[in-house]
Design brief:
With 262 residues, the chain is an alpha+beta fold. It is built from nine helices and eight strands. An eight-stranded antiparallel β-barrel has the order 1-3-2-8-5-7-6-4. The radius of gyration is 21 Å and the shape is globular. It folds into two domains: 28 residues; 226 residues, Alpha-Beta Plaits (2-Layer Sandwich), CATH 3.30.70.100. Helices cover 41% and strands 24% of the residues.
Amino acid sequence: MKNSIYSSVTTFILIFAFAISVNGQDNKREFYQLKTYFLKDANQEKVVDTYLKDAYLPALKRTGIENVGVFKPIPKEDADALKIYVLIPFNSLDQFLKLDHMLAQDKSYVSAGANYINAKHDNAPYERISSTLMKAFSEMPVMEASKVTGPRKDRVYELRSYESATEAIYQNKVDMFNIGGEVELFESLGFNAVFYAEVISGDRMPNLMYMTTFENMESRDAHWDAFRTAPKWLKLKVDPNYQNNVSKSDILLLYPTAYSGY
């Protein structure tokens, strides 16, 4: 009887210790908000650019939020409406939830962003804003600002979204990145990833998103050629444990603005 009790207590302690360890690791994972501004013309683009550069990003820095990325689509003939993408890292959901209140108390922000903040209903600075909230993968729990060099107009920041048919299948794709070694493969091939994350709130769920960065389009194409022919990927893509786990993929090719954090 005593041995049985001892065994039960020992098992409980081990399980409790494991739970603490897992939660501790989970707490280290950052959260990201991707804000997309939909714009109708160059005038709105100028207003939002000025607001982000002179008011929003400086205010975020004053709250302790660094490495905020601001990106625009690489021009193409069949380009959609004008857009600006803002990627904001948070060390916790609490920091995310308190941000608007903190900004409202920041007199410098309110002053510098007055034209945007106090815009009239018939002269709005944008058409709409969409927001996606994400949680970093366990294999890359913290954002790493890109160290890619060269002219910003030539850089390629590739933002990908992978949708899955169901929540369970989506989790399988997340596992493919973390447990299967896809994140490790990207790292070994020098893809200069900024983040990998699970989307926890957005309009395309279930899905994950990640961003890789390159000096130019030639570098981007060469890296993907190396990925597609890498022995590890050739083995991973036929692994029976990771089949049919992406139902749709979206690829956005972006470049960083002059005032982007990286």
